[in-house]
Amino acid sequence: MARTFRICSTSDTHGHVFPVDYDADRPKDCGLLNIAHDVHALAAQPGPDGKPIPTIALDAGDTLQGTPYSQLFVAGDASAADREATAGLPHPIAAAFNAVGYRYVTLGNHDFNYGYDVIARYLDALDAECLCANVRDLKGRLPIRRYAFLDLPNGIRLGLTGLVTDWVNVWESPRNLEYLAVTDTYAAAEEMNEFLKSRCDVSICIYHGGYERDVRTGEPQSDTTENRAWQIAHDLDFDVLISGHQHISMPGAVINGTATVQTCATATEFAELIVTLEDDGSVHATSRLVPVGAEHDAEPYATLLPYEERTQRWLTEPVGRMTRDIPSDPLLDVAMHGSELAALFNETQREATGTRVAASSISGIGMETGFPATVTHGAVSRAYSFANTLAVLAAPKSAIKAALERCAEYFDLDADGRPEISERFLKPKVEHYNYDYWAGLSYTFDLTRPLGDRVTALTYSDGTPLPDDEPIEVCVNSYRASGTGGYEMLAACPTVRTVERSMQDLIIEFLQRHDPWTPAIDGGPTIVY
């Protein structure tokens, strides 16, 4: 007789515990506490025989970073008063994961953002087992396993492993990887696949990484090894692959016999997979994405509420002023004509490093382009939601031009010859944050020219030419310095110096030194089409 079980999976919950939209500052049907209610309700439903079918909950990482809540009480930015008010409470994220009842989790790249000790505190408080076959703990104290076996009540034996994209090594500061070694993702996947397949009835891989090919057609969508879910599913023998990292809603596909799903970010949905083991040993699955509902249980909501109350208080605290609001204009408009918000980031970077030229992007929650005249902690967190530090690169003119050519790829021309945002930056994942705004330079993009040959003019913003034979200092954030997003030419530039402080802190300090700040743009593009 065929036997079945259920998987409820999430990924990229990014610190969303309470049903709150921090961007819109209002309640929202989301968060781990609401997911806990929904998963328990689903698991209690009777199956075909009138009894609930076995259910396990899995998560594919990027858990600890992403909200003001986690910034304060996981990263450690809370004030002494806030720490005292929440002393003795359970771990702010692990307690919510425990409420869901996750059985196994893996780590995501952003879970390394705060270093070894923060990971240790999370895993120590977690009921779930952490599986990550390509992460080695050089101190030997973290409860991370390479694989696990689980025998379900109906006799099905599961074999599970976890993986994280090895691009952690590209993005993460070496200080945050101290005592940790992240090894080749695919090599670990191959090893675990070979080990598990003869030792279990159903093999499951939980992978913090996305699809490098279209899951329906197999068409390539990336030429890097950041995402390898399609290759893992296609080339190996896992029965189920839980994917993450790209923040896309993918309700289910079968790639060469492997069933795979991915949920979007911020705990707004979870995946339900019904997996069937046939008498002949074959495995098949159906899957769907389930929107998170409006209900949550009384606990641990009440226990964790002091964290959220302190977070809401912190969000409204003023930290600086500007002479006026920065208007919220469409992304295409600001990309073509310049962004005063990106200009604020660039001025912060230039002042912090003493450079003449800087580049930054719009990468905050919702990709919002506006900013209020009365600046609060919440406004800064929404506008700049990552804990990036700064790097000063020695960049020759050729590398700067190549980086600008990458920016010029952001645009296509529509049927009427008007600029539009290219699907290169929209699919499979929305990547507006990979379009950079440059300060201190003036440059021209001719969109009628082929990709790679669109930059037709490049000078300093005062019109003086860049030197042809020697590099200049350029300030970018740590993410861009890694070369990610198509900026390999910047990763090839020597790093002259770094500023190992969060951009969020630097923005606040900049505004306090220039109170009130008048928004202005130095340099930027001229678009020809």
**Total count of domains:** 2
Helix-strand makeup class: alpha/beta
Largest sheet: 7 strands, mixed
Segments where pLDDT lies below 50 for 5+ residues?
none
Would you identify the CATH H-level superfamily of the largest domain?
Metallo-dependent phosphatases
In short:
The chain contains 16 helices and 29 strands. The protein is α/β, with parallel strands linked by helices and 529 residues long.
Structure description:
Keywords: Hydrolase, Nucleotide-binding, Signal. GO terms for molecular function: hydrolase activity; nucleotide binding. Residues 6-248 form the Calcineurin-like phosphoesterase domain. Belongs to the 5'-nucleotidase family. Residues 336-491 form the 5'-Nucleotidase C-terminal domain. The chain is an alpha/beta fold and 529 residues long. The protein folds into two domains: 3-312, Purple Acid Phosphatase, chain A, domain 2 (4-Layer Sandwich); 318-528, 5'-Nucleotidase, C-terminal domain (5'-nucleotidase,  domain 2, Alpha-Beta Complex). The protein is 27% helix and 27% strand. It is built from 16 helices and 29 strands. The chain has a seven-stranded mixed beta sheet with strand order 8-6-5-4-1-16-17. A hairpin with a 4-residue loop joins strand 2 and strand 3. The longest helix has 18 residues, at 298-315. The chain is globular. The model has no long low-confidence stretch (mean pLDDT 97).
